[in-house]
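SAMPLE LOG
Freezer: B-3
Tube label: C17
Construct: single chain, 329 aa
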Amino acid sequence: MKTLVTGGAGFIGSHLTDALIARGDEVTVIDDLSTGKPENLEAALARGADLIEGDITDRGFVDEVVQAVKPSTLFHLAAQGEVQRSIEQPSFDATVNVVGTVNLIEASKNIGLDRFVFASTGGAIYGEGGRIDLPATEQVTPEPLCQYGLSKLAGEQYLALYRRMYMFNSVSLRFGNVYGPRQSPKGEAGAVAIFGELLLAGQNPTVFGDGQQTRDFVYIDDLIDAILTASRTDVEGPINLGSGEETSILGLLDALREAGHALNGDGPRAGTTFEPQFDRGRPGEVKRISIDPSRAAKELGWNPTTPLAKGLPETLKSIGTHKQTTPSA
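STRUCTURE (predicted):
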C-alpha cells in the first residue's frame, strides 16, 4: 500500500512512519523540517521511506507530490500546533492549519484517494471543560478558546463538507495530550517532555497557572495503534483518542517524580526537589479537559492500555540526562 504522511519527521509522525514501514507500506513523508527532525526518520529512511522537504501551504508543491505518489491513504499530521503562537500569529496558524489542509484535501480528491486520516485535537477543540460533563464526547458542541482549536475545527468541517459533496472518505482523530519517546521539549505542547528533561537535568519546573489545570494524557504507542486501525476502516467523523481521565499538572509532576525514583533509585537529581514555581496562566488554555474514548472503543475496538505509571518511565529513558535550557510549561 502506498501511504503519504505529512509532518512525518515530527514526534507523532515519525512513530507513525515507522509503524507503516513495519506493516509493509511504501511510505512517502512530507515535512518542511521547521519542527520535525530528520534524525527521527533515520530508521524509516534506511528501510525505504522517502522524505520530501516542502510546505503544505504551497498548493503547487502539494499537487505535484500527491500526483506523483498517488497514495491510497494520506495521514495529515503537519500542523501549527502551539496555542500561544496561534493567538499571537492567527494568520500564520490559519494558513498552515486551514489552507494547508484544504490543499491536501483537494489534491487527494483529484487522485481519488481511498482514505484521508486527519490529526485533530481533543485538548483544544471543545473549549473549557468546566462548562460540560467530562470526559467530553464527540457530541459536545465545540467552543474553542484559541485560534489553534478553531483552525483544527475548520479542517474537520472541510472534511465533512467534502464527504457531503464528493463522498470523500475521511476520519478526524481528536488526539489527547500525546507523550512518549521523541517528543521535543521545545515549544509548549510537550509538557511531559519539558518537565521530564528538567527532572533529569536537576532543575525545578515552572508551572503556568496554579497547577490544578487538567489534561488527558495518551501514550504514543496507544495512539499509533488507533491511527492505524482508523485508517483501515470506513468510520467517518470525529473520534476521540484519549484516556478519558483528567490528570492535573501537579499530579503529572508527582507521577514524573515517582518515575524518576523508579529509574534512578533516588528520584530527582541532587540540587532540586522538583517542586514547582508558579507563573501567571496563559490565555487560550483550558482549565480542565478530558476526552471520552467510548466511540473509539465501539467503532475501532480501541482502548488505551498504557497508564502514566508505565509510559512515563519509558519516556524518561528516551529523554536522557543531558542538560540544556528548556522552556517552561
